[in-house]
Amino acid sequence: MGRALATKEELNNELEDTKKIIQVTFFDDINEEDIRKTKWLLGKYTDMIDIIKNYEFALQEMENGLSAYELLSAEGTIAKRETGHELTADVTANAIVLKDKRHTNYKFYVALTNIIRCVINNIRDPHEALVARLLFLEGMKYLKAQAYMEKGYRKDVHAISATTFADKRRRAISTIATSLKLNRTLDFVVIDYGRGRNQEGEIGLRLPDIELANP
């Protein structure tokens, strides 16, 4: 029962966060579903980068004569995050990339990550831009990123309070959502409200001819 209550609380917090982001959004055509899709996609950025690196390593090793069996055995241990921790391979996602249409899907991941990175790099407000880079491009935990911004390690970006950090994050997500909707990137993120799904629906990424669902 404790877990169920926690899950409900998490959902309520997520909904409240999304509503606050909507409040700071300049364009009226950005709705809660757009914000949900944007937050989900940003949360998958580092995972997609890992898959891209794994695939590129796979191509290199195949060119070097490594057998398919050796490749699959090694795949989960070759990539490390910047933190130095061993990467836990997403077997389902990696398996999809290594199937018949692996190169098409690989290019799709590359395109998506390039778009996300470009949108974040084009954020004009220096604090919003740095918050977005720390949280989404580098995958830094919220409290760690908040502490980093409170300390003011960057000479060109002055320190901000925890409250301001939260506001800058919301505004950054709003800006990113607007750009991703305008360039139609959000069209590739789908929310399935079908039979057997929970009330909030399940978010997934639709790849070319293959649908990669959120576990």
Write the layout of secondary structure elements.
Elements: H1 2-23, H2 32-43, H3 45-63, H4 68-75, H5 91-97, H6 102-121, H7 126-137, H8 142-151, H9 162-182, E1 189-192, E2 202-207, E3 210-213
Helix pairs in contact: 1-9, 2-9, 3-6, 6-9, 7-8, 7-9
Task: Characterize this entry briefly.
The protein is 61% helix and 7% strand.
Explain this structure.
With 215 residues, the protein is mostly helical. A 3-stranded antiparallel β-sheet has the order 1-2-3, covered by helices on one side.
Share of helix among residues?
55-70%
The tally of helices reads 9
Measured by DSSP, the beta-strand proportion falls in: 5-15%
Shape: globular
Mean pLDDT: 79
Secondary structure tally: strands: 3
Measured on Cα atoms, how large is the radius of gyration? 19 Å
What's the SSE pattern? Answer: HHHHHHHHHEEE
Briefly note the structural class of the backbone: mainly alpha
Q: End-to-end span in angstroms?
A: 22 Å
Give start-end ranges of low-pLDDT stretches: 1-6, 77-93, 210-215
**Strand order, largest beta sheet:** 1-2-3
The major pleated sheet works out as: 3 strands, antiparallel
Name some characteristics of this structure.
single chain; 215 residues; mainly alpha; three-stranded antiparallel sheet; 9 helices; disordered N terminus; disordered C terminus
